[in-house]
């Protein structure tokens, strides 16, 4: 388990170093989702990864068109869900990618997006309680879906996104169910209105593709049903990928 987390952390550090220069350019213009598409006109890349420039390339990095929705995959490299004051004490559920995650959303024009699926399909294998209180983890799943996002500028022009509730939905958050001393226990921690979670967006390279990393800022506490207090936290990093192509935030 800890080996998987360590490997994910090393990969993350490598991608962050390679992607910082690209992220630094994002404050120069309107912040948009960019996708790699084949076409004529301003073509400058040789493949659908939009990684290697070529004078004869047929691929280009373009903003999402108005009215268009493009499906993206959300892959948690590591996510930590904490309730600091549950009835049994602090609980810290860490989940990592081991082909046990389901995450999907869409990106739209003007930097808009939605998160529509977010859950761990086999939490007892892919998650653990770092505090040792949950002996068996039965469910780790997002609530209040779909979540609404929109790229915005931080204080220094860096790209951020805030996870907001759908106009017809409830506050975004996470549900965790586990066994404590052979008794099932459920805790749902959701954002407080006006204190929704923000994530920093960073363009990054893997070995074969361009993707975006979303890092939880952990700036606010969530309201949890088990403690009946604002005692919840979310930490970690999620990779946002475009299957079969490249994704970035305003890298042109």
Name a few traits of the molecule.
single chain, 252 residues, 18 strands, mainly beta
Care to give the gist of this entry?
This protein has 252 residues and is mostly beta strands. It is built from two helices and 18 strands. The chain has one domain (2-249).
Structure description:
The protein is mainly beta and 252 residues long. The protein has one domain (2-249). The chain is 11% helix and 50% strand. The strands form two sheets. It has a 15-stranded antiparallel beta sheet that branches. The radius of gyration is 19 Å and the shape is elongated. The relative contact order is 0.21.
Rg: 19 Å
Mean pLDDT over the full residue set: 86
Order of helices and strands: HEEEEEEHEEEEEEEEEEEE
Structural class by SSE content: mainly beta
Q: What portion of residues belong to β-strands?
A: over 45%
Biggest sheet statistics: 15 strands, antiparallel
Beta strand count? 18
- Provide the domain count: 1
Unreliable spans are 1-28
Terminal residue distance: 38 Å
Helix content: 10-25%
Helical run tally: 2
Outline: elongated
Note the topology.
Layout: H1 2-24, E1 33-38, E2 59-63, E3 70-86, E4 89-96, E5 101-107, E6 112-120, H2 123-126, E7 127-129, E8 136-143, E9 147-153, E10 159-162, E11 164-165, E12 173-180, E13 183-190, E14 198-205, E15 210-216, E16 222-224, E17 229-241, E18 247-249
Antiparallel strand pairs: 1-2, 1-18, 3-4, 3-5, 3-17, 4-7, 5-6, 6-8, 6-9, 8-12, 9-10, 9-11, 10-14, 12-13, 13-16, 14-15, 15-17, 16-17
